[in-house]
Amino acid sequence: MMKVCRRTTFNAAHRLFRSDWSDEKNNAVFGKCNNPNFHGHNYTLEVWVEGEIDPETGYLVDLKLVKEMIKEEILERFDHRNLNLDCIEFADLNPTVENIALVCYNILRAKLESKYELSLKLWETENNIVFYDGK
Ligand code: NI
Q1: What is the pTM of this model?
Q2: Residue 33 designated active-site
Q3: Which pLDDT tens digits describe the chain residue by residue (135 residues)?
Q4: Looking at residue 110, what DSSP letter applies?
Q5: Among 21, 31, 58, 101, which lies 20 to 30 A Cα-Cα from 52?
Q6: Rounded CA separation 39/12 (Å)
Q7: What is the whole-number distance in angstroms between the Cα of residue 74 and the centre of ligand 1?
Q8: Reduced to 3 DSSP states, what percent helix, strand and coil does the chain have, rounded to the nearest 5?
Q9: For this structure, is 87 an active site residue?
C-alpha cells in the first residue's frame, strides 16, 4: 500500500460563533474569530489517497481525476465563499478548521472509489493544521 497526495488551496471567509450563545460567551470562546463582519483564510488542503499501484498504468490513482474531483466538489463549493452565509454545509455547523475538514472528507469520501482509503490535512494558517482519516 502507498499514498499519493493532491494539494490545493482556496480562500474563504468565516465567523466562529454560536447563535444560541451570548455575545460575551462567543467572545470568550472564539475571540477575534467571532468578528461579526467575518474574516478570511487562505486554506491549504492535502487530499491523500491510499491504495495499491495498478501494474498496468503504474498509477495508484490518476491524480488528474483527483484534481478534477477536488475542483468540482470542494473548490466550486467553498473557494471565494463566505462559509457561514454562502454554504449550506455550514448553515448549522460552526466553520472551524475541524468542521471544514470533516465536511470535505465526507464529500470526497462519497465520490472516491471504495477501494481507496482517504485522509486529508487542512491548513487554516501556516501553523494550525487538522488531519482527518474518518476515524
Ligand atoms: Ni478564522
Answers
A1: 0.96
A2: yes
A3: 999 999 999 999 999 999 999 999 999 999 999 999 999 999 999 999 999 999 999 999 999 999 999 999 999 999 999 999 999 999 999 999 999 999 999 999 999 999 999 999 999 999 999 999 999
A4: H
A5: 101
A6: 8
A7: 18
A8: 35, 30, 35
A9: no
